[in-house]
Write a sequence for this structure.
């Protein structure tokens, strides 16, 4: 028997089994505790928001009267009557505004983002694409308040002047257009980064197959590479729309916070679910405070539904399209 | 000899590494030419010169002359796109596009601007028939090409190439990723195709070269060692290195 075999056998035969099993158990308990902790926070948040958010509908709100859930979800004036004396809140128009703005911003950021991604992944030289990749990552990590400041300092002025050129007096530039532009800017890096990764991971064989058939670079890029990357591109759209729906700070600075609507004109002031929640949150109490949690509840449902729908479409599109 | 490719003094470098050394060869029209040799001998690199797929590699530098139908394809104003429509290619691993079988075959013609549905239908049906795939896929021609088996995918790639009605088909080890039965079907197909097309095939299998080719070129370390009729190469090779290789002494 060699020395090594002897030493190994000595270790194998030591009676450490019970101790090892005990350590295994402890580690398992620690893992489970941390899972329970993080999961329970999410549940606690949901319960808290739901309780707060449902209060205006189920209590009499200190004698003001409860909010009607149907008119809340469908109406087109934020508050009919005076604050603290009326329970006639509604956010139907705000839901429409939110979806409208998210859709428009994606309409800008999707094509621009995907084309940028294609350029970085396939067209630019290696040095340029490495540089651009860093730029995109930097843009993605800029805090939203900075985008908001840029929006209120630059985009508002641009939109104001643009509206003036059309002979329209906008409210200091606060408008649907300004909000859409800020959100498009904010979602652009996310969409670019994720699309770029999925375009870059398209198999080179497919690209060569296309070129060998006499397809041009452009035909190959659009017909084969984007086709093959479409599932990843769709994923980028889902994340982009998530950010567009959930963004509060930057939007509040450029939306104008309209109190009725919906706002469908590009130079109209507007409001989104998030900006409505944020506005005046610190300066109010009672029903006017609680109702913002109801808005938050609606926002969660809207985001959940959008994601479900988009994921459903992604599954349909992502599997090879069959005409 | 009626040659379709005439290659003179071809040298190819990847940066400092010389992958092809002074290659001179005439490829016969409507014949199957097999390129054999051990891994890394430059046979695939040579094949990729013929439809200028090496253009995609930045570090690749080429000198010498390759004449396709008496025209040098390595001049700056030569139309690469049109070259690739005349010199088709089938790759080592089946690489169908993630689209339907129909769209795969119609891809090449569509890229050239053919939109008429009747013409495309005709091209797709003919190509699938000539690649012996039609009977197997006629009922699911609109289904994804990725649902096919490996051998079927490779035949689809051949169909895709012949949809362009090329004059030459380059095949880069087309059966190395396939099982023996699928390989047999591809070889049968090549026997059919050689009536209409010039085929140049890179293969690792000497049996395959012996079975299907008319001429065989033996490459070693970037040099063309011997080029002759296949039966001569395999029975009475002139060069000692060729003999060593085909008798299995190395490679």
């Amino acid at each position: 028997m060699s020395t090594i075999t002897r030493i190994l056998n000595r270790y194998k035969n030591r009676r450490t089994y019970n101790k090892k099993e005990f350590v295994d158990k402890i580690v398992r308990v620690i893992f489970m505790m941390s899972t329970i902790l993080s999961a329970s926070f999410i549940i606690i948040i949901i319960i808290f928001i739901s309780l707060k958010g449902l209060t205006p509908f189920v209590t009499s709100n200190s004698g003001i009267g409860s909010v009607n859930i149907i008119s809340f979800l469908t109406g087109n004036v934020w508050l009919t009557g005076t604050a603290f004396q009326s329970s006639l809140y509604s956010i139907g128009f705000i839901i429409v505004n939110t979806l409208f703005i998210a859709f428009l911003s994606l309409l800008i950021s999707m094509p621009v983002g995907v084309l940028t991604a294609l350029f970085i992944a396939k067209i630019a030289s290696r040095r340029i694409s490495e540089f651009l990749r860093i730029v995109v990552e930097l843009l993605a990590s800029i805090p939203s308040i900075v985008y908001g400041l840029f929006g209120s300092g630059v985009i508002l002025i641009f939109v104001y002047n643009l509206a003036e050129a059309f002979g329209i007096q906008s409210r200091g530039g606060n408008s649907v257009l300004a909000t859409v532009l800020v959100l498009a800017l904010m979602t652009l890096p996310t969409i670019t980064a994720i699309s770029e990764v999925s375009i870059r991971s398209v198999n080179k064989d497919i690209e060569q197959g296309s070129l060998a058939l006499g397809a041009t670079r452009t035909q190959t890029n659009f017909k084969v590479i984007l086709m093959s990357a479409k599932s990843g591109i769709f994923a980028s759209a889902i994340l982009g729309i998530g950010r567009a729906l959930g963004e509060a700070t930057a939007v509040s600075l450029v939306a104008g916070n309209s109190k009725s609507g919906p706002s469908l004109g590009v130079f109209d002031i507007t409001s989104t679910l998030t900006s409505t929640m944020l506005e005046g949150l610190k300066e109010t109490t009672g029903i006017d405070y609680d109702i913002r949690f109801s808005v938050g509840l609606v926002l969660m449902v809207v985001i959940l539904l959008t994601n479900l729908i988009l994921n459903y479409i992604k599954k349909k599109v992502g599997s090879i399209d069959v005409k | 000899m009626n040659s379709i490719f005439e290659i003179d003094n071809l040298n190819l470098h990847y940066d400092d590494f010389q992958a092809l050394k002074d290659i001179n060869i005439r490829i016969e029209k409507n014949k199957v030419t097999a390129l054999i040799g051990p891994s890394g001998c430059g046979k695939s690199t040579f094949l990729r010169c013929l439809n200028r797929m090496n253009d995609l590699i930045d570090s690749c530098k080429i000198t010498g002359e390759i004449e396709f139908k008496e025209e040098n394809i390595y001049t700056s104003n030569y139309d690469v796109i049109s070259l690739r429509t005349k010199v088709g290619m089938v790759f080592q691993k089946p690489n169908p596009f993630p689209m339907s079988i129909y769209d795969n075959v119609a891809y090449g013609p569509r890229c050239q601007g053919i939109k008429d549905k009747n013409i495309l239908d005709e091209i797709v049906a003919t190509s699938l028939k000539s690649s012996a795939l039609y009977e197997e896929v006629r009922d699911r021609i609109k289904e994804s090409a990725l649902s096919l088996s490996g051998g079927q995918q490779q035949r689809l790639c051949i169909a895709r190439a012949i949809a362009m009605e090329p004059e030459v088909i380059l095949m880069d080890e087309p059966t190395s990723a396939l099982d023996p039965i699928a390989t047999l079907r591809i070889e049968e197909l090549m026997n059919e195709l050689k009536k209409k097309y010039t085929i140049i095939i890179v293969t690792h299998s000497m049996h395959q070269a012996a079975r299907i080719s008319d001429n065989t070129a033996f490459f070693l370390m970037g040099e063309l060692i011997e080029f002759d009729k296949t039966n001569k190469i395999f029975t009475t090779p002139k060069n000692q290195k060729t003999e060593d290789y085909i008798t299995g002494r190395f490679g």
Observations:
- The longest helix of chain A spans residues 17-58.
- Chain A is about 75% helix and 0% strand.
- The interface with chain B takes residues 203, 205-206, 208-216, 219, 223-224, 227-228, 319-323 of chain A (CB under 8 Å).
- The first strand of chain A starts at residue 79 and ends at 80.
